Amino acid sequence: MNFFRSQTMGYYKLIIPRESAWNVMNELAELDCIHFVDYDPTLPMINRPFANYIKRCDDLLVKLSLIEHEMKKYLKKITHCKDVNLLIKNFKQLIKERSKASHTYLDEIENDLEKKHQQLIEQSTNMENLHERRNKLIEHKSVLLKGEALLGQSFFQPANYVAEGYVNLQGKELDDIKVLQGSVKFNYLVGVINKEDQIRFKRIIFRITKGNAWMNTMDIESDQIVDTKNDDAKIIKSVFVVVYPGGGGSNIITNKLNKICESFQVAKYTFPENNMIFQEKLRQIETELVETRNLLEMTKNQVEAYLDDFQRIYQNSNCSQIEELKLFLIKEKYLYTQLNYLRVQGSVLYGSIWLPQGADIKVDQALREVQTTYEGLPTGQLQISPPEGTRPPPTFFETNQVTWGFQEIVNTYGMPRYKEINPGLFTVMTFPFLFGVMFADIGHGFCLLLLGLYLCVFNKDIKESDSILKHALIVRHMLLMMGVWAFYNGWIYNDFMSVPINLFGSCYYQDDEGDETIWARKEDCVYPFGIDPVWLCVPNELTFMNSYKMKLAVIIGVIHMMFGIILKGVNAIYFKNWVDFIFEFIPQIIFFTCTFGYMDFLILYKWSENWDNRTQDAPSIITLMINMILSPGNVDQPLWGTKEDSSEGQVQTAMLLIALICVPIILLPKPLILNCENKKKHAHSSSNLSENMNKDLYQKINEESEGTQQNSEIQAESSGGGHHEEFGDIFVHQVIETIEFVLGSISNTASYLRLWALSLAHGQLAEVFFQMCLNGGISTGGFVGAIRLLIGYAIFSLVTFGVLMMMDVMECFLHALRLHWVEFQNKFFKADGYAFEKCSFAKVMQENAAPKEE
């Protein structure tokens, strides 16, 4: 079973002639079954033999991203690849039909892309320059028209200069300034400024001139000027006119105003001296604007023609040309990255790979196919070899659409060791169940169930749409199972949005005794499924449900943790680790059974007893467990038998003694045995020589690069624990393990009470929302009640969706995650393995084929 334990891995040596390295790797990467071992993880990629090819691919991908940006700018639709396997076949067929060497196709793409990119850059630069020129002409035209509107015709008439001095223009209108024109000469400052800087510019002008200037502005139409540096976004600018007294260019006010304009980077323009020059300038600007618009249109058409070529879908392709080029470059980059994991020696590349059991046949067939397809090219060789160093094989599980999400939950915490039991198999069942215990509600669970069903049934339609639910498709099966268990546990608790459902008829009836009305149970009546609805309508509802859910949480938690301990024993048997099995698993399972397993037995025994008419004799389980530790053998209120004649005290004493004896068994024997084994290994380590090993071709070549091999082995030892451990380290580690297990048994059991706490919180929130939003309208009745019910239902729907269906789902999900990561998996899961990274074109291309979200 490949999902219960990792697939069996084989260690092989791969030898490839350098002249056929591209062809061999191109075939092997389509198999999706090879894990290349890096011969020297400390060596940077830039210092490896194929680093130059990777850099070329990166540079070309940058150029393609610039072209893609231009296509989005011109609203060109890019057809993304939906079937990368078909595209890989097209690439393979295209390269096979060429008469040149296969790896030279990258050179052709590079040359072609360089030319097209350069042409596009030139056209884009021309477009930008033309837009800048058009902006200047529009600004100049606006200055003339708006300036004339602001200043009027009288300013075209030259004034006789009489005096130069301070003239207070503060608060004056333009007509008042015109009256002074005959006696005082005025200067004009005309230009264009961004509208967002207009108020700040006006304020500084006022402060610098101390009110000795008149300023006014008029906005330019917002759709005329574009920002070429920001994807041709529209810019709102304003024409400003500053009138101030002064006689020449060296005037102090003039110098100050020029410096202000420079700091604001405003464009200044000169105003014509007379009306004839004004009209001539307008005609000239209009002519230039027409020419510029025509040039812009022509350049835009040329740019779009270039982009249409990248947008086009060619024959036998399923995506746009730019997408095809991008995926080919990603494929080439990935191919050379994998080749960098191999060591180069002369004209040969050689390295190590891991293969799943049976995959060596596929690799041999691929190597033979290279020799058949490309005549004259030597193919590679595959040789089985014993693993080097101390690093174990990688872990590989085959997952499908259902199991992928649950396996990711496990992998996020840590990758299982090679051949260690995979917690993901059990997480598929236990994770949705624990979520359902916390989120138990018939109505809310059914909503979650419907969502999961909708995502599963219409997943193809949703995938092709722009729906926000597209992001939830990957966990649709998980949502479906979570909804199923929440719906099921809702029936167990008999809770439909805080309202009980009397489906089978209650086993209780009201009986009047004097002035009091009590609930009496029908004889030999048991409610068929779930909680009797009457318990959710009585005053002690919260007390009863709290007790029931708390005990149920403890029972589930203890069973879950005991199952984790059993898996530890199964692992020990599989790895033939009898020390762990005898001195850890056996005492741990006995300790847990004698303590918390006994507590579960007490809960179930108490539930099985009929306490009618003698509820005062029912003992408290918590009291029994506390007295078992503090007062062994003394049972004030026994669960079975009488106080004078009861074996319960003896059973408790025996359970406590057995549990106490298990603690030193967990603590002492294992470090002593391991210390003895380490001494024996250390004494005989010098006799374990490697001259008896058969040397194959790879090993002979490897001897010539002994330094690199030694470096890899030293690193493997430092990461894999190949050094001699001292007894003190072993003993301290075992002390920590023992304390963690004993104290963790208590804290972990208490941690499962979150199943009760979150279920209680969910039920109480649902009840509060129902009482506050709907109960008033239902109880009022009539027209007023209908209006209250209508408004209340809208509020009830919103808060139910936001708080319970969104926040509480996430909360229950995270708590179920915690119970698996900490309480369950720490009983057997080491989580120090590493994943099988299969060399796969399809995988890396699929990751880059989907469009990125903006």
From TrEMBL:
<feature type="transmembrane region" description="Helical">
    <location>
        <begin position="581"/>
        <end position="605"/>
    </location>
</feature>
<dbReference type="GO" id="GO:0033179">
    <property type="term" value="C:proton-transporting V-type ATPase, V0 domain"/>
</dbReference>
<dbReference type="GO" id="GO:0007035">
    <property type="term" value="P:vacuolar acidification"/>
</dbReference>
<feature type="coiled-coil region">
    <location>
        <begin position="106"/>
        <end position="133"/>
    </location>
</feature>
<keyword id="KW-0812">Transmembrane</keyword>
<comment type="similarity">
    <text>Belongs to the V-ATPase 116 kDa subunit family.</text>
</comment>
<feature type="transmembrane region" description="Helical">
    <location>
        <begin position="468"/>
        <end position="488"/>
    </location>
</feature>
<feature type="transmembrane region" description="Helical">
    <location>
        <begin position="790"/>
        <end position="810"/>
    </location>
</feature>
<feature type="transmembrane region" description="Helical">
    <location>
        <begin position="433"/>
        <end position="456"/>
    </location>
</feature>
<dbReference type="InterPro" id="IPR026028">
    <property type="entry name" value="V-type_ATPase_116kDa_su_euka"/>
</dbReference>
<keyword id="KW-0175">Coiled coil</keyword>
<feature type="transmembrane region" description="Helical">
    <location>
        <begin position="654"/>
        <end position="673"/>
    </location>
</feature>
<feature type="transmembrane region" description="Helical">
    <location>
        <begin position="552"/>
        <end position="574"/>
    </location>
</feature>
<keyword id="KW-0375">Hydrogen ion transport</keyword>
<keyword id="KW-0406">Ion transport</keyword>
<dbReference type="GO" id="GO:0046961">
    <property type="term" value="F:proton-transporting ATPase activity, rotational mechanism"/>
</dbReference>
<protein>
    <recommendedName>
        <fullName>V-type proton ATPase subunit a</fullName>
    </recommendedName>
</protein>
<keyword id="KW-0472">Membrane</keyword>
<dbReference type="Pfam" id="PF01496">
    <property type="entry name" value="V_ATPase_I"/>
</dbReference>
<dbReference type="GO" id="GO:0051117">
    <property type="term" value="F:ATPase binding"/>
</dbReference>
<keyword id="KW-1133">Transmembrane helix</keyword>
<dbReference type="GO" id="GO:0016471">
    <property type="term" value="C:vacuolar proton-transporting V-type ATPase complex"/>
</dbReference>
<comment type="function">
    <text>Essential component of the vacuolar proton pump (V-ATPase), a multimeric enzyme that catalyzes the translocation of protons across the membranes. Required for assembly and activity of the V-ATPase.</text>
</comment>
<keyword id="KW-0813">Transport</keyword>
<dbReference type="InterPro" id="IPR002490">
    <property type="entry name" value="V-ATPase_116kDa_su"/>
</dbReference>
